[in-house]
Amino acid sequence: MKKRSVKKTKKIVEKYMFWWTRWLGLRWHNFSICYDNNWKEFDKKTDQRSGMRIYPDWRYMMFEIWVNLPPLRELSEETIEHMVVHECMHVFLNELRIEGSEQHNNHEERVATMLENAFLYVRDQVKEECAG
Ligand SMILES: [Zn+2]
């Protein structure tokens, strides 16, 4: 896929962030979207998902989503939407983390992935049923 512009990539991220935070009921949270152009930890071969990271704090109902722009410029819009929904799932799951631990475990990762797929599946199904 051809690299899209940074401006267009940000627009896609924001479109899905605003749509999904609204319908997931996350607008009660205080959140910000932060962009990075040189995320050294990112490794496309081993962890494509690290193109986005979320830092939620359930105690104060707030989160920061960090977006690593270079790899996202080459990902499809559909993949970016999946990533946005996935990161939003961590907002709900954050409260289940062990007190004092910043890290989440593999169970949280799997549940976030399952919920991401479930929400997107339901959305697609509703779209299809409403259209037909
Ligand atoms: Zn995750």
What report would you give on this structure?
This protein has 132 residues and is of the alpha+beta class. A hairpin with a 4-residue loop joins strand 2 (52-57) and strand 3 (62-68). The termini are far apart. The radius of gyration is 15 Å and the shape is globular. It has a single domain (6-131), classed as Zincin-like (2-Layer Sandwich). It has 4 helices and 3 strands. It has helices at 6-23, 69-72, 77-93, 106-131, and strands spanning 30-36, 52-57, 62-68. The site of zinc ion has 4 residues, from helix 3 and helix 4.
Counted up, domains total: 1
Helical content band: 40-55%
| Bulk shape | globular
Rg, Cα atoms, Å: 15 Å
Q: How would you state the average pLDDT, rounded?
A: 89
**What is the CA–CA distance across the termini?**
32 Å
The parts where pLDDT drops under 50 for at least 5 residues are: none
Strand order of the largest sheet: 1-3-2
Instruction: Provide the β-strand percentage band.
Output: 15-25%
The count of β-strands is 3
**Count of helical regions:** 4
Structural class, by secondary structure, is alpha+beta
Largest sheet, in brief, is: 3 strands, mixed
The molecules bound to the chains, other than polymers, are:
zinc ion
Architecture per CATH nomenclature, i.e. the level-2 architecture: 2-Layer Sandwich
At the first level of CATH, the class is: Alpha Beta
Could you tell me the CATH topology label.
Zincin-like
Order of helices and strands: HEEEHHH
